[in-house]
Structures are given as structure tokens and as C-alpha cells.
Amino acid sequence: MLDHINPDFICAGDVVSHIGVSRYAEVFRQDLVKVLKERKDTYFVTSASFGYLLILNHPEIEEKVILIKQSVHNPNYDLHRLFALPYLASTLNIHMLPLAGTFVDKIFIIGCDGKSANKDNEDFWAHAQKAQYHDLVDTGHKCHPTFDVHRQKSTYDRFINSTEESIRAGESLHGKQYVTLQRSNIPVLSGRKISTEWLNEQPVGQPVPLRNYSFTEVSPSSATPVESTESLPIKVGLDCSIEEGDTLRVRGWVLSLPVVDSVRITVNDVEVGYAIKQARPDVLRANPGYYDSSAGFLFLMGLEGQKHCSVVIDFIIENDVVHTMRKHLG
């Protein structure tokens, strides 16, 4: 199956099935490590707390594991702008949909057909035996005897609600389109099975290159109220500096109503990219009335020996620049 799919990413993060003490979880980890070693272009994307424990026990795959912290309450559709995972249910909503939405607008889903009508199902999911450690499921139940009892209804209900939230908001607010490759019993995915006619009408897109980023915790250096036509003013905390190694660091936070969509960076009159949005709950607590869960931003760029530069920071809402700040460094 892996040879057929040839995945760029593998996602997982279940505390019982993947990081637990059962034979099921042990075999999963063994197979995961084996696959990551054998496939040089396949990476494992997971929640930071899970992946950290995995790396401690398997340091040989450290460079193949991408850790992302769960730190936002709403679905995330662009990990370039906000490198954070949502507090939702299921790896589909926590890892897979944020990852897919980062690179493309048309998202094709397979293997997500929901709860089976078969009452003799071995678990609350109906797993295909060829893609599941079917004979080891009971080892998880024995190691965690109360887990399955308590999760039967609540876990599936949370999954249904999380998927509904992710799909609806992705379509209505972020221009995403979701299609299933087979019939699904999940309410929000039912009726989305792909048709040959629909597929033939779609243009063929180009591959999206992966991007490399570094991330650092941010603290604001100032808060500057700016005039605004909205009921609440724009507030900005900004710190620009040239760090050791000739690295430009632009960091801070911005609050506005409506929220700022993106933070564009221009260096020496050349537009160089956009800052990554980050969760800043401390900023929200200090500024009641605002609700942007990703108020923080961070941008890093190598200056290649330059000791002086001018930086322009544009704050953008719906393609309009609503505020600009300029800094001269060096």
C-alpha cells in the first residue's frame, strides 16, 4: 500500500494506539521507524508532545520527524502563516487537513468513510484489515481497559463535530474544496464522492515546494495604538533586530478587528515574504475584546553579511494594507 501511495507525509498521534504501552502501539512504532528509514522523502508529522517522546526513544529518525505544537482552538489552513495545530479530534483534523490546506486548495480524501453500520466492528472504527493491526486491537483494550468504554460515544461525536468545523470553515472562509474518493458515512463528507465528470473538469496543478523555517518564542517590546475605522483600534507590538549570524529577526504581535490576515515583509525595497503567524494567548489576555488566536508573528532571514538594512512591515486585511511600520537597522 505504501508503495502505491508513496506518501510525502505520515500523520499520527493517538496516545493509546501510537504512543501507548500495548503490543499494538509497539508494532506501529516499529513499522513507522522502518518506513521512515527506508523512504528518504517521507516525513512524519505529529503533535510536538508525541513526537518528542518518539525521538527520545528513536533518535535515529530525528531528522524525519516534524514536530508541531497543538496551541490553537480553531482549524488551521496554512502552516506557513501559523505553525500550530488545533485542539480538535482525530489526526484528520489535527494533522492532515492543516497540512493539506497549507499546500493546495483542492483536497482529496481517501480511507475516511466513518463509522460502520456493522455492529460487530472490532472497535468504534471499521478498519480495513489489510491496513490495520487487526489481531492486535485487543492488546490496546487490555492495557487500557476503561479507555474504550469511555470514548465510544464521546470520541466519535467529537470527531464528527471537528470534521464538520474543519470542512465548513475551509470552504466558506478559506477557499478550500474537499472531495472523497469513496462513499463516506461521515455527515459532512457524505455526498462528496468524486465523479469522473468533475475530475475531467479540473485543471492540473503544479507541485508546491516545501519551505524550511526556524521558530522562536516571541515577546513584544512595545504596544503602539494606531488609528483605525473599526470599533477597536489596531495594536502592534514590534521588535526588529539583526542577530548573530547576520540574521534579520522581525517579531511581535498585532491585534485588530477584523483580524489581520497577513504580515508582509520588505527588506531594502525588495518584498521578501510573509511572517509566520503564531499563537499568543498572553496578548489576548492583556487585551480583552480581541479574539485573534494567532496574534503573534515571526520572520527570519539571512542577510548574507549585510550589517545595515531597512525593513517595511505591512499589515494586511483582505488584500488591503491597513498599517505600515518602518525600521532602519544597523
Produce the secondary structure layout.
Elements: H1 2-5, E1 9-11, H2 23-38, E2 43-47, H3 48-57, E3 65-68, E4 70-72, E5 85-86, H4 90-103, E6 106-109, H5 137-143, H6 147-174, E7 177-180, H7 196-201, E8 224-226, E9 234-243, E10 247-255, E11 262-267, E12 270-274, E13 276-278, H8 281-286, E14 296-302, E15 309-317, E16 320-329
Parallel strand pairs: 1-2, 2-3, 4-5, 6-7
Antiparallel strand pairs: 8-9, 9-10, 10-14, 11-12, 11-15, 13-14, 15-16
Helix pairs in contact: 4-6
Runs in which pLDDT lies below 50 for 5 or more consecutive residues are: 208-230
Structural class label? alpha/beta
Name the average pLDDT: 80
Q: Any idea how many domains?
A: 2
Instruction: Please give the count of helices.
Output: 8
Q: Can you list the strand order of the major beta sheet? A: 8-9-10-14-13
Beta-strand segment tally:
16
Instruction: List SSEs in N-to-C order.
Output: HEHEHEEEHEHHEHEEEEEEHEEE
Q: Considering DSSP H and I runs of 4 or more, what fraction of the residues is helical? A: 25-40%
Cα distance spanning the termini:
55 Å
Largest sheet descriptor: 5 strands, antiparallel
Rg over CA atoms: 22 Å
Can you offer a commentary on this structure?
Strand 8 (224-226) and strand 9 (234-243) form a beta hairpin. The strands form five sheets. The chain has a five-stranded antiparallel sheet with strand order 8-9-10-14-13, with no helix packed on it. Strands 12-11-15-16 form a four-stranded antiparallel sheet, with no helix packed on it. A three-stranded parallel sheet has the order 1-2-3, sandwiched between helices. The relative contact order is 0.10. The chain has two domains: 2-201, no CATH class; 224-329, Sandwich (Immunoglobulin-like), CATH 2.60.40. It has eight helices and 16 strands. It is an alpha/beta fold and 330 residues long. Helix 4 packs parallel to helix 6. It has helices at 2-5, 23-38, 48-57, 90-103, 137-143, 147-174, 196-201, 281-286, and strands at 9-11, 43-47, 65-68, 70-72, 85-86, 106-109, 177-180, 224-226, 234-243, 247-255, 262-267, 270-274, 276-278, 296-302, 309-317, 320-329. The protein starts with a helix and ends with a strand. Helix content is 28%, strand content 26%. It is globular and about 65 Å long.
